[in-house]
Design a protein that fits this description.
It is a single chain. The protein contains 25 helices and 18 strands. By secondary structure, the protein is of the alpha/beta class. The protein folds into 4 domains: about 170 residues, P-loop containing nucleotide triphosphate hydrolases (Rossmann fold); about 60 residues, no CATH class; about 140 residues, Fumarase C, Chain B, domain 1, CATH 1.10.275; about 210 residues, 3-Layer(aba) Sandwich (Rossmann fold), CATH 3.40.50.300. The chain has a 7-stranded parallel beta sheet with strand order 3-4-2-5-10-1-11, with helices on both faces. The longest helix is centred in the middle third of the chain and has 27 residues. The two termini are about 35 Å apart.
Length: about 625
Amino acid sequence: MARAVADALIRGRHLLVEAGTGVGKTVAYLAPAVLHALSKTRPVVVSTHTLNLQGQLVNKDIPLMQQVMEHYPFKAVVMKGRANFLCLNELDDASSLVVYQGDALFERLKQWASDTETGDISELDFVFPDWHELCSNQDTCRRQECPYYADRCFYYRMRRAAESADVIVVNHALFFVDLGLRMMDPKNAIIPDYCAVVFDEAHHLEDVACNAFGIEFSNYRVTSFLNRLRKRRDIAVTQGEYQLIQTTNDELFALFEAVPKQEFFLGELYEFVPRETVDNKASELIVMLDSLNTQLAEQQADADKEFKDRIQGYRNMLTGMSTELRQVFFGLDKGYFSWVEKPPSMRLVQCVLHYSPVSVADLLREWLWESVDSVICTSATLSNSGTFSYLKSRLGVTDCNELILGSPFNYRSQALLYIPEDLDSPCETSEYADRLSERIKEILLATNGRAFILFTSYRMMNNVFYRLKDCIPFRLLRQGEMSNERLISEFKEDESTCLMGVSSFWEGVDVKGERLSCVIIDKLPFAVPDTPINKARYAQIAESGGDWFHDYAIPQAQIRLRQGFGRLIRTRTDYGVVAILDSRIRSKYYGREFLRYLPSCRVTGSVEDIRRFFDSLSEQPA
């Protein structure tokens, strides 16, 4: 893998490389990336999706490479988005507001601000509710005119450090935000000019890019802004004016309650509410935001320089909000669509409006693949059915090098795959939940717990949880009961624990050794077909003559299944059972394709074989 990365960097080629668990992907791309950056005197960007991998890079892999490459000293810097950093100018301004006078949490924040070297929220050991008002913000930043810009600004201090770095570590979200800025004006870029980029966990690129190039506008967006403005006595806006905007915002978002779905196209709202009513209410809110903008502009004219800048920041926010609302409700950009999400169990955000691209392939082809000398994409699950055709079509990749490497682990001796013969029609009924729960119980008793139980829906996870919690001799943890970090910590500490999860635990979770000896997957992880994003993508594939099930649904599910399978064997000494409780993997033509590209191990349909597998391991000498 290191040779392939080096060759791509030297020749200015792109590379797609799948490397199974245990290959050592980070070391394989870091060594040639460092040498390439030093030779070009320009940095290489390394982009990850999860905080777990970013932490591994920063705290383990990069220090290791700096140690073993002592004859090639290099500097590595982590870059994060603005919202991670405290703004000292905002802190000074807030200190003058009555609402924070004598506030104990605010005083703790001020003390932390004087002690911290980074101003990074990750170092904050308490929750400050108004962090979003005091963090660095593109709209309110005074840049060179700020008294802290030259030496004390936490955000620009990070950016200056990155300018002298050889390796810059970012996450995918920041990379694509930066790419979007470069598309409009390269001078506005956040990341210093780089000679190459390495995407680890590259199977997430499409979804992250889709979010970065789209719009999200929640019901709380206007409310949060008005709350911020209300704290200021030096802005002449009456409470009645604030209340009128708030009421209009509430009335607009209340219209979406008429649709009995959690996710739907904006057009589906018109089946319940006349389009004229929706358009009029959206226009009314836009006009009010524009009017408030004009009102602030009039006050700005007579203000001193510092206050003039602050008002300009608020006006930038208002301009952004009205522009985004126009796009969501009235945008006609080719290849974009508007949809609505009603997140469950969120206190302040009950509704989010989205304006999303159907595909990012053309954008990435022009601004990434044709603009960057060398792009390296890697993951343990990057290919489908032995090719990269799915990834290349979704990301707009044309000409590139390709490499698929298996895992060095011996799955034939380390793992057993259990597939039942009688669970072939997964559904959400009570009867099926009974059958599924009983089978999971049998497997847990055979493996003595120590299991991840992965589900494709919260509903089925909860149904199984309530059926099992009082009838198995193991502690049962469930996603959502506490933070993911705490759940993993509890799982590692208690050997009699089983952990049930939905999305977050299918990948990026690394539990080595006997603590995790079983991974149970409730069914083949096909994405829900009737979400707006999937519907839009399916329609585009059909319009171009493709087959959405073969070209999109199956490849997505293959990647997801392999990610779940990969939770089990993390080292050469790990062992255990993966149970896929979906007989379609045996009986359906597409199921056999799933099975063919899983790691090669013994397969059984008998729970008794699981017991014998663990008995045989216990009889082996240490």
